[in-house]
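User: Please predict the structure of the protein below. I'd like the answer in structure-token form so I can feed it into my own downstream comparison script.

Assistant: Understood. Taking the following sequence of 219 residues as input:
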Amino acid sequence: MDRLESRGGWARRLFGAGVALAGGVMTILVGANLRLWMTATGRLFEVAAAPVVLVVIVPGAKVGPDGAPMAYLRGRLDVAIELLAAGKAREVLISGAARGDSGDEIASMRTYLVDRGVDPACIRSDGEGVSTRATCDRARSVFGIDRAAVVTQRQHRVRAVALGRAAGIDAVGVTAYCDCRRRTLVRNTIREWLAGPKAVAGLIRRGGFRGSGRRPGGR
């Protein structure tokens, strides 16, 4: 009997520790993502309401076996094309992995834009933008961009804006189209939630934001 009670006690303590750990993890995830949302408040726009900026930044995403952009990336590029055509931006920075696992994201994006009428002279390329943070950091340090619209899907906008601001860019986020499967949407939403704490930790290490204090839409 004593052994059974002892085993039951251990089981209860183990269960309690598991619940406490899960609660702690959830608190960190929720807190981090709320912090990111706070940094992006007033800086998230749909295409029609996007402010005028000099540069649109398009982060890379997976390309298909034929080298063409897949749904996520097409959605970003299509919005960038609309912003350029509407006179809301003069240039586009395509940033991704030129030697990525799925292929050359930069070549894929450039071809897609040029084939749809974008002047090649308006396209700037960064083949070392292998992550959202690298894209934002290099946009500021290598290309000298201090104000831009980052075009990406709804799940990704908040983190992209926060990392852009941390890099010293007066960044706004514009919602990209997403003709995507539900499984893809769920996977990427989970991925963004899990990426929140790492992004916030990076912001804390940098001491907050170095971006301009101008209101979005200001010249």
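That's the full token string. The longest strand covers residues 147-152.
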